[in-house]
Description:
By secondary structure, the protein is mostly helical. The chain has two domains: about 25-65; about 70-150, no CATH class. It has four helices and no strands. Helix 1 (about 25-65) runs antiparallel to helix 2 (about 70-105) and helix 2 packs antiparallel against helix 3 (about 110-140). The protein is elongated and about 75 Å long. It starts with about 25 loop residues before the first helix and ends in a 14-residue tail after the last helix. The model is unreliable at about 1-15 (pLDDT under 50).
Amino acid sequence: MRDEGNEHSEHDSSHSGPVGAAAPVPAAATxxxxxxxxxxxxxxxxxxxxxxxxxPAFVMIDTAIVGHxxxxxxxxxxxxxxxxxxTVGLCVFLAYGTTSKVAQLMGAGKRKEGMEVGIDGMWLxxxxxxxxxxxxxxxxxxxxxxxxxxGPSSSPPAST
Length: 160
């Protein structure tokens, strides 16, 4: 028996599912929203992929160019690129840590705080970069010897 004061009874077919549950979404809307999500993922994935392959691509291009100069230059590039890629790999924590924190704050609607964390991350990266650069310049010769460089590949190029 239907309660006259209640618009929907237990047997009313206009509401399927528990009270407070979302209404079923039509298949066309679901496909559209999936496409939208795929577009958003692609919009994030393509620049990220480019950033991840940039440094190895630069090293590959350097190798192709320097390979035509001399064996000593190629050996020096090999050691130098190993040092650079190792340094970048060790400092990637800053990018991943900052990115996740900024994303968390932006997702929570805290745009100002997210921007502040991003700017703080850039200043920290700048400071770490200056320190790492100074250390690499100061210890370049011992570092090259530690990596096995001997002879012309371990000395700075002569200016022409």
